[in-house]
């Protein structure tokens, strides 16, 4: 439950982002995602202009063309989309921007420096903050190449106080990791119809002299530098972020366990380069069809919480004290073809062979058959965007994302490409 003053603090007289009547925002994020708060109220409360992006996942080239064609001056991208845009070589098309904000997850130093080299007239901002403190808590305007191991998340924005606390709930020394707490005008009232969780996360602020003042326990770990800027170190609990969405693995485990044939389940997050994904391990009498498990889970949790890969085990590994050994699960190899709903059929043309190799590289699966479902292999929407860009660059054929989702196998996609290829 976010009060009006929290939105005002985010976009009115915001020192980190001076918004004026000549600015044009692109409203790209789903309205359920807190980035939309900035995209909608930033222009509307400052006399600016808001351009609403078409529904659905835009191809990267179309996104860049939309930004340039509409004269967008302020753009917010999730970390995943930012990384893909840089990797695609399309970031140079954004040179008309005054500000490019990216966040929602950890930004890669390499991607940030590559973007800054192309966008010399644009201020790149690394934005950090939980939804409970209304989109941004800290922002780091980046004006020089990053030479540190991490991209800083910056100081607190106006109207916000940030505390890095040690185990004794005292201020952690500069350079020492501690728990990040946020206070100020951006705080939400709490969680709707959940007073217990509200009391657990929103606690009294011992550093304020104002009666009733609160601060939010973010669950994030960070450290403060001598200049006051913060570095993000990760989560102190099992909560993870996948493509900008904060996910409680326990909620995903509950959905997987709810299947009538699943006896137990565990979820771990894995990383490959800039990509993070969920892997679900389940215990059952025999391997189950992954497609059926996913359809069941989709009735209980949003699509972004569905594991990219599902692995059958006859038992979950345990530590010496009887808890699930998540380190052992993380070390498990990706599933074999028994986890897929299709039998293997090899590529029958150079185009299918090229697609199979690309899918294999992205999903870390080998071999990839032409009847394998891209999403069963662990693919997701951002990977799909990357594939669409590669197809366009190599063949000149523009694939609509919705067509990709409707044709998620190599055989179907190859036919779609062939139908759209120039004579």
Automatic annotation (TrEMBL):
Q: Which organism is it from?
A: Streptomyces agglomeratus
> Tell me, which GO biological process terms does this entry list?
amino acid activation for nonribosomal peptide biosynthetic process; enterobactin biosynthetic process
Q: Which GO terms describe its cellular component?
A: cytosol; enterobactin synthetase complex
Residues in Carrier domain copies: 346-421
Q: Which InterPro entries match?
A: AB_hydrolase_fold, ACP-like_sf, AMP-bd_C, AMP-bd_C_sf, AMP-dep_synth/lig_dom, PKS_PP-bd, PP-bd_ACP, Ppantetheine_attach_site
Keywords, sorted A to Z: Phosphopantetheine, Phosphoprotein
Q: Which residue spans traverse the membrane?
A: none
Q: SMART domains per the record? A: PKS_PP (SM00823)
Q: What is this protein called?
A: Thioester reductase
Q: Name one GO molecular function term.
A: 2,3-dihydroxybenzoate-serine ligase activity
What is the annotated signal peptide range for this record? none
């Amino acid at each position: 439950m976010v009060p009006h003053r929290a939105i005002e603090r985010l976009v009115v007289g915001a020192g980190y982002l001076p918004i004026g009547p000549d600015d044009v925002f692109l409203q790209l994020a789903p309205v359920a995602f807190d980035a939309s708060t900035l995209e909608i109220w930033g222009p509307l409360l400052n006399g600016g202009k808001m351009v609403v992006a078409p529904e659905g996942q835009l191809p990267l080239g179309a996104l860049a063309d939309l930004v340039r064609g509409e004269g967008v001056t302020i753009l917010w991208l999730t970390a995943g989309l930012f990384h893909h845009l840089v990797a695609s070589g399309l970031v140079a098309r954004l040179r008309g921007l005054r500000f490019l904000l990216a966040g929602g997850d950890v930004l890669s130093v390499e991607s940030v420096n590559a973007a800054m080299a192309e966008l010399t007239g644009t201020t790149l901002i690394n934005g950090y903050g939980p939804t409970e403190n209304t989109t941004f808590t800290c922002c780091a305007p980046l004006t020089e190449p990053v030479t540190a191991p991490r991209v800083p998340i910056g100081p607190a924005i106006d109207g916000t106080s940030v505390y890095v606390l040690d185990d004794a709930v005292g201020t952690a020394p500069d350079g020492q990791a501690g728990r990040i707490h946020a206070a100020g005008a951006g705080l939400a009232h709490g969680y709707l119809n959940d007073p217990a969780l509200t009391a657990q996360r929103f606690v009294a602020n011992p550093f304020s002299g104002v009666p009733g003042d609160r601060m939010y326990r973010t669950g994030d770990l960070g450290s403060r530098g001598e200049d006051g800027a913060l570095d993000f170190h990760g989560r102190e609990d099992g909560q993870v972020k996948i493509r900008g969405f904060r996910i409680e693995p326990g909620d995903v485990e509950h959905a997987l366990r709810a299947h009538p044939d699943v006896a137990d389940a565990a979820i771990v997050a894995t990383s490959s380069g800039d990509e993070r994904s969920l892997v679900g391990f389940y215990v059952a009498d025999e391997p189950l069809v992954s497609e059926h498990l996913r359809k069941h889970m989709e009735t209980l949790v949003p699509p972004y919480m569905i594991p990219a890969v599902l692995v059958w085990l006859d038992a979950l590994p345990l530590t010496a004290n009887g808890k699930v050994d998540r380190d052992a699960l993380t070390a498990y190899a990706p599933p074999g073809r028994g986890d897929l709903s299709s039998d293997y059929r090899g590529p029958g043309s150079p185009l299918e062979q090229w697609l199979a190799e690309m899918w294999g590289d992205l999903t870390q699966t080998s071999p990839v058959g032409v009847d394998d479902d891209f999403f069963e292999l662990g693919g997701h929407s951002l990977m799909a965007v990357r594939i669409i860009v590669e197809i366009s660059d190599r063949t000149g054929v523009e694939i609509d994302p919705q067509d990709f989702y409707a044709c998620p196998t190599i055989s179907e996609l190859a036919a779609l490409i062939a139908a759209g290829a120039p004579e």
